[in-house]
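Run log // design_07
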């Protein structure tokens, strides 16, 4: 028996030691939900039940679970070379993966800095932005601007530009000089929009307010998720991202798209930047880069960003950027990443996501008249179903729906009172129907 299978047989008789992330530990430990295996669209629980994955794990398993090609690539790599030092040494797969990622990134986004998670990608991009201006002789640009309701991971940089109060409030003063533009969520104007809402492009002008307040010469970068996932699937209004790009260009501010969720096919193209026709100065990504198999993240930078560092460094032996991680470009992650990109290409999964998105849209919007539903919104292979909160108990109704859906064999993600759907891009139409029908039934049974 292999190790994974023998572990699966162990009783979880002591759940205490593991302090679970972003989890109601006491609730979980009173009624644990344990996965022990996964394949394709399904997880298997410890009790042997199959759970249809409508969340791609945590927005990451875009090609479906335990893909043979990825498993074998990682197995072969670990048996050949387990680790290679990340600093002052290299290995071929890291260079190859960087080339492959930049080849599917839009415009002249030609350089890739590897990290191990979305949070590290964000903090890396923020540091690069500040140092970039220094390298260009504009060291006064230190401010980092995010957006209300943004999620950029859990490092102090990402928290500082993030805009979810529950994530921020316990952690004291965050980065000096961080600020936020307003979010774009407006049910009065945009409820039940299909794809990008018509109303709200002008909200990008809020950046001009911060420029007027702080002075453009103090602002290094603006970071936004093109589609905000973790805060409840907020879709950019038409023209909004274009307008942000224009304002950043006007004031010499770098624009960063956090594509940790939207990267690698989720919206029906390689990146949201590609799909929505706006090229930022940097993209942060993670999750789908390895299909969730091995932790990895990356910052993809435009040529002018990379060049600024190469041109500013004096002497060929000088390190241009004093930043990096022991596991940047880890061989196992690179092997997983290369095999993942092969699957995306060979199975045309980004195109598949695009062509399936119309069916998905019709299916999720059929929930418009289900109990408690106050909005349905969608783009690509993502949808948000917003429920009316239970009075005095925000988040409770959606959490009850999550638990009941799990009982009925469907994994979703909930955030606030929003049910977020992001199935693997291999999902079949019948499985979309099953997800939506089960949600409808569950909403009829919960309070
Ligand atoms: C947009 C965005 N940025 C950053 C992160 C953080 O990624 P990680 O959990 O890998 O640190 C996430 C995670 O969901 C995310 O959605």
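design_07 sequence
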């Amino acid at each position: 028996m292999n190790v994974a299978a023998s572990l699966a047989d162990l009783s979880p008789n002591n759940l205490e030691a593991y302090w679970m992330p972003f989890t109601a530990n006491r609730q979980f430990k009173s009624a644990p939900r344990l996965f022990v295996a996964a394949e394709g669209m399904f997880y298997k629980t410890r009790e042997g039940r199959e759970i249809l994955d409508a969340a791609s794990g945590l927005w990451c398993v875009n090609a479906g679970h335990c893909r043979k090609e990825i498993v074998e690539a990682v197995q072969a790599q670990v048996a050949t070379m387990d680790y290679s030092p990340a600093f002052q040494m290299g290995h071929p797969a890291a260079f190859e993966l960087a080339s492959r990622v930049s080849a599917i990134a839009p415009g002249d986004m030609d350089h890739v800095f590897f990290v191990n998670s979305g949070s590290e990608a964000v903090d890396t991009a923020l540091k690069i932005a500040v140092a970039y201006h220094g390298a260009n002789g504009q060291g006064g640009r230190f401010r980092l601007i995010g957006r209300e309701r943004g999620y950029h991971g859990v490092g102090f940089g990402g928290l500082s530009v993030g805009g979810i109060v529950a994530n921020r409030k316990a952690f004291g003063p965050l980065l000096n000089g961080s600020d936020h533009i307003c979010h774009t969520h407006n049910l009065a104007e945009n409820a039940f929009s299909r794809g990008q809402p018509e109303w709200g492009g002008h909200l990008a002008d809020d950046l001009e307010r911060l420029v007027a307040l702080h002075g453009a010469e103090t602002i290094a970068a603006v970071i936004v998720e093109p589609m905000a996932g973790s805060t409840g699937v907020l879709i950019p209004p038409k023209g909004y991202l274009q307008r942000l790009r224009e304002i950043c260009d006007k004031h010499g501010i770098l624009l960063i798209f956090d594509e940790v969720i939207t990267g690698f096919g989720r919206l029906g193209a390689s990146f949201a930047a590609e799909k929505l026709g706006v090229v930022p100065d940097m993209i942060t990504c993670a999750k789908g880069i390895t299909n969730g198999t091995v932790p990895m993240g990356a910052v993809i930078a435009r040529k002018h960003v990379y060049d600024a560092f190469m041109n500013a460094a004096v002497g060929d032996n000088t390190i241009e950027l004093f930043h990096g991680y022991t596991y940047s470009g880890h061989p196992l992650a690179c092997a997983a990443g290369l095999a993942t990109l092969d699957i995306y290409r060979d199975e045309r999964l980004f195109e598949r996501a695009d062509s399936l998105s119309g069916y998905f849209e019709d299916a999720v919007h059929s929930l418009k008249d289900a109990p408690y539903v106050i909005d349905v919104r969608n783009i690509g292979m993502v949808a948000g179903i917003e429920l009316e909160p239970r009075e005095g108990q925000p988040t409770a109704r959606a959490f009850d729906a999550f638990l009941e859906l799990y009982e009925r064999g469907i994994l979703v993600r909930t955030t606030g009172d929003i049910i977020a759907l992001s199935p693997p891009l291999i999902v079949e139409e019948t499985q979309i129907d099953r997800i939506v029908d089960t949600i409808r039934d569950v909403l009829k049974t919960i309070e």
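Residues 117-119, 122, 151-153, 225, 229-230, 258, 260-261, 286 surround pyridoxal-5'-phosphate (CB under 6 Å).
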